[in-house]
Design brief:
It is a single chain. The N and C termini lie far apart (about 40 Å). α1 (about 20-30) packs across α7, α3 runs parallel beside α4 and α4 packs parallel to α5. The chain has a single domain (about 10-245), classed as Rossmann fold (3-Layer(aba) Sandwich), CATH 3.40.50.720. Helices cover about 50% and strands about 15% of the residues. α6 (about 185) links the parallel β7 and β8. By secondary structure, the chain is an alpha/beta fold. The structure holds NADP nicotinamide-adenine-dinucleotide phosphate. NADP nicotinamide-adenine-dinucleotide phosphate (NAP) binds near residues 16, 17 and 85. NADP nicotinamide-adenine-dinucleotide phosphate (NAP) binds near residues 14, 19, 37, 179 and 181. InterPro entries: KR_dom, NAD(P)-bd_dom_sf, Sc_DH/Rdtase_CS, SDR_fam.
């Protein structure tokens, strides 16, 4: 199912930084009308000025903000659920407040925004929803809750995709590995591993755009990471040994 982006209205969460800002720049060049969401007005305004986007300041941890975000994007053709946060450390040391915050931003907000915007896309018989998940969806050490939220997104996307069948609405899950963005600084622990190497936010943005245009179900960035996911299903013993060796960045 090919999808033409020119002239489409796109709601992009987490548009103020990293992967979201790079995606906004690329979509603006494709001729999209953008609505960018984030908490920090300064970052949002900066990307908004570069891309001609409308910007909306909202905290996605607050469920009462979500209808306002969806209203501002009523009739949107594309929803890109990109906003996300991390937390690194052993689960037993993770304060409940952080658990709740990760669940709210990474999982509950994308589900609710999809619930609010999907009916119109379906009625119109066209649209696309993207979930920016992570290779951490396979389950990695010291990122148990983050992994759970990203695996949750992947499973949710698969379920909704089945429900939509031939309704003309595409659903894509994007699973990046490590990406060079402020994400690691913000979560409080730098990315210290030499492998896998970090990729650029621009590469992930280009895969998001291509996945929408081509109607791809899943996109791993870089592509070879797809092998890790396939190995988890097909060779769980070997996968678990390798995940023990490589699946954590300390
Ligand atoms: N970087 C990586 O290695 C990597 C790898 C795999 C997947 N990902 C995923 O990619 C997505 C984008 O991350 P990134 O690497 O680009 O990180 P980033 O540069 O830190 O960007 C995160 C974005 O999410 C927004 N955000 C965070 N909390 C929010 C909240 N409560 N309400 C509204 N917006 C919020 C931030 O906006 P404000 O600060 O303005 O609120 C920012 O625009 C995330 O879902 C992340 O999990 C990242």
């Amino acid at each position: 199912m090919r999808f033409r982006l020119e002239g489409r209205t796109v709601l992009l969460t987490g548009g103020s930084s990293g992967i979201g800002a790079a995606t906004a720049r690329l979509l603006a060049r494709r001729g999209c009308e953008l609505i960018l969401v984030g908490r920090h007005e300064r970052g949002l305004r900066h990307v908004g000025e570069m891309t001609g986007a409308r910007t909306l300041t909202a905290d996605l941890t607050l469920s009462e903000e979500l209808p306002r975000v969806a209203d501002a994007a009523a009739g949107a053709d594309v929803l890109i659920n990109n906003a996300g946060i991390g937390w690194a450390g052993e689960f037993i040391d993770m304060p409940s407040e952080h658990v709740q915050r990760l669940l709210a931003v990474n999982l509950a907000a994308p589900l609710e925004l999809t619930r609010l915007l999907l009916p119109e896309m379906r009625q119109r018989g066209g649209g696309h929803v993207v979930f920016v998940s992570s290779i951490a969806a396979v389950g990695v050490r010291d990122e148990a809750v983050y992994s759970a939220t990203k695996a949750g997104l992947r499973a949710f996307a698969a379920g909704v995709r089945h429900e939509l069948g031939g309704a003309g609405v595409g659903v894509t899950t994007v699973l990046p590995g490590a990406v060079r963005t402020p994400f690691f600084r913000r979560r409080g622990r730098a990315y210290e591993r030499g492998f896998p190497r970090q990729v650029s936010a621009e590469l992930v943005a280009s895969r998001i755009v291509r996945a929408i245009e081509q109607g791809s179900r899943e996109s791993f960035v870089p592509r070879w990471l797809g092998a890790a996911s396939r190995m988890q299903g097909g060779m769980p013993g070997i996968f678990n040994r390798l995940n023990g060796l490589f699946g954590g960045d300390r």
